[in-house]
Amino acid sequence: RAVIGVDLGGTKIATGMLDQSGSLLARSQKATAGLKSADEVISTIVDTINEVRGEQDIAGVGVASPGMVDSKNGIISNGVNLPDWDGISLQSELEKRLGISVRLINDANAAAWGEYVYGAGRGSQSMVYVTLSTGIGSGLVLDGRLFTGSSSFAGELGHTVINPAGIQCGCGQRGCWETYSSGTAIARLAREAIAEAGIETHMTMLAEAEGVPLSAKHVFQAAGQGDQVAAETLEQVIHYTGLGLMNIIHSFNPDRIVIGGGVSRAGNAFFEPLIRKTEELILEPYRGTCTIKPAELRDDVGIIGAAALFVD
Ligand code: ADP
Ligand code: ZN
């Protein structure tokens, strides 16, 4: 039977139907801008599902959402950029309208499960997925099962603290991992290094030439072209990212870590030094036990991972 995944993003609802081998058979997408109530949002989700399902018999619908997702009660706690969202029982509402079983899941957990079943996590036993994006998200697959914890909120590794004297994170705490290794953090560390060096850097020029603010992408680009300040920033970033991966390896002893998100697009310039640094940081018995790989599924990872919850 076919399965359906819905990715509730910040700006759009993207829905796809997959067969059991993970091939995307149909896809539909609608913008969330202009939707005025939770009811309109739910109706729009139902419309996308009806568009992709056709006459197919559907085993289930997985819904991935950013933010805190209460999978146990089928509620998205702190709504995405959706109107009147608080406390809506999305799962029961969708099940009522569709007559199909529905599961809600956090988007990083969906991506973790998608990579484990169909992507860079295939064949591993315990896999941790990390997305280095605007923030840091993560999901845990332990002994072949998606581990979501006692109230479904497990895997917020972006908010584990690596420096209590660090800058304030969006969550209120100081020095969370995501304030050191997200794309946003890389750009901030670069700006700090530029201010300290007090010189004109190649990365600044790259950003100016594009007419956009300095971003993580420019830092990697400039470092590859010999910018010393950018290279030093990346050395710092690799150290912090390695510390985060070290914490993961020491906590879960996974045989695989899969890294996705915008920063992973930097490719080998990121992965080679990161793998070396992590191997150096971890305790001796862990050396050589964990493979660190870039994610394989791209834009549709949320759809694929949520749908894969119903693959048997
Ligand atoms: P979102 O957080 O909206 O899901 P992404 O996963 O694309 O977005 O992550 C965005 C971050 O990734 C930005 O900080 C951006 O600078 C960074 N990024 C995008 N492309 C690259 C690249 N090629 N190399 C390094 N960083 C990148
Ligand atoms: Zn935090």
What sequence of helices (H) and strands (E) makes up the elements?
A: EEEHEEEHEHEEEHHHHHEHEH
Shape: globular
Order of the strands making up the biggest sheet: 3-2-1-4-7
**Beta-strand percentage range:** 15-25%
Description:
It is a single chain. Helix 6 (202-210) crosses helix 7. The protein has 312 residues and is α/β, with parallel strands linked by helices. It is globular, with a radius of gyration of 20 Å. Helices cover 38% and strands 21% of the residues. Bound molecules: adenosine-5'-diphosphate and zinc ion.
How would you describe this structure in keywords?
312 residues; binds adenosine-5'-diphosphate; binds zinc ion; 12 strands
Describe the structure concisely for a colleague.
The chain is α/β, with parallel strands linked by helices and 312 residues long.
Strand-helix topology:
Layout: E1 2-8, E2 12-18, E3 24-31, H1 38-53, E4 58-65, E5 69-70, E6 75-76, H2 90-98, E7 102-106, H3 107-118, E8 127-132, E9 136-142, E10 145-147, H4 178-181, H5 183-197, H6 202-210, H7 216-224, H8 228-252, E11 256-260, H9 268-281, E12 291-294, H10 301-307
Parallel strand pairs: 1-4, 4-7, 8-11, 11-12
Antiparallel strand pairs: 1-2, 2-3, 5-6, 8-9, 9-10
Helix pairs in contact: 3-10, 5-8, 6-7, 7-8, 8-9
The structure holds adenosine-5'-diphosphate (ADP) and zinc ion.
Residues 159, 169, 171, 173, 176 line the site of zinc ion.
